[in-house]
Amino acid sequence: MKYSATLLFVIATLVLCISPTVSLGQSNGNAEAPGNTTSLTVGYVDDAFALAGADSLNLFDYDGSSAALMLSSQSASLMISYGVQDADPARGIKPLRNLAARLHFGGNAHLFRQLAGVPIAAYIPIRVNLGYRNLTREEEENGAMEPVEGLQQAPPTEDEGALNVAKGGLGAGLGASIRIPTDLPVLEDNLTGFVSVVRSLGGMTDFGDVVEGVRLTRSTDFTVEGKLERLLGNRTGVTIGLTVRSMSWSQETVEEVGDVLDVVTGQDGALRQRSTQTLFRLGINF
């Protein structure tokens, strides 16, 4: 693929960033600290993304389900998803292939690690986030895209065959974790819960000719996760989680400092929600 080098960079960065030694709650000899494990989870993500060129005709609009895989620790995560949106002959829409990857990494500034003797931790997650998305129009065979009689068809346009966008940003938020001690067999003190919200500001650009310049972005990431650790052996367990992400971006390119300040202070009325991802996932931790 033309931009496969981008994905290779993401994967290589992941190897450096996701490591148990940088996870939340590194115990430092404290047995009551949250588990220091990495999770590998899979699921289907409800993915919606729409981006149009300056004339609003060359529109890439994906709204469907994609298979997703996520590798995550408490201070970094990588999600890769892939799906195909079916054609809509009545609207002249071709099948659309969607490949997306996003990488978050950083650190956690702890506010406290215990509260009144209870293993509850609160922290400020600080994250760098990188993203890439490829949307490619596919040709259908056997005349599947021939006009439907009696329905008005959209005028033909000189569409780009693919959209390749990259995004980068920096964010911070609030997170918490709790280890739930029990006297039950198997569970013991191996059940841990995490929740975090991160708000980010950044920029997005297109490698091709669909959108020119850099667009300012604002995104929100919400994650809730539960881990049953040491279910099999000393480290292997089960992880279940929900990840929700929404992103909006400016309609115009960045031209002056005032444009950036409008986004930072929330004064830019041109920012609209254009992308959402909701992933319910299940897998293992180790």
Describe what this molecule looks like in 3D.
This protein is mainly beta and 286 residues long. The chain has a single domain (4-285), classed as Lipocalin, CATH 2.40.128. Helices cover 8% and strands 54% of the residues. Strands 1-2-3-4-5-6-7-8-9-10 form a ten-stranded antiparallel beta barrel. The protein is globular. The two termini are 32 Å apart. Mean pLDDT is 78; it is low at 1-33 and 147-158.
Low-confidence stretches: 1-33, 147-158
**Number of DSSP strand runs:** 10
Strand adjacency order, main sheet = 1-2-3-4-5-6-7-8-9-10
Mean pLDDT: 78
CATH architecture annotation = Beta Barrel
Overall geometric form: globular
For the sheet with most strands, the description reads:
10 strands, antiparallel, barrel
Q: Kindly identify the CATH topology.
A: Lipocalin
Rg over CA atoms: 22 Å
In whole angstroms, the N-to-C terminal distance is: 32 Å
* Beta-strand content: over 45%
What is the count of helical runs?
Answer: 2
Secondary-structure element order, as H and E? HEEEEEEEEEHE
Q: How are the secondary structure elements laid out?
A:
Layout: H1 4-17, E1 39-52, E2 59-72, E3 76-85, E4 96-112, E5 120-137, E6 162-180, E7 191-206, E8 214-232, E9 236-249, H2 257-265, E10 272-285
Antiparallel strand pairs: 1-2, 1-10, 2-3, 3-4, 4-5, 5-6, 6-7, 7-8, 8-9, 9-10
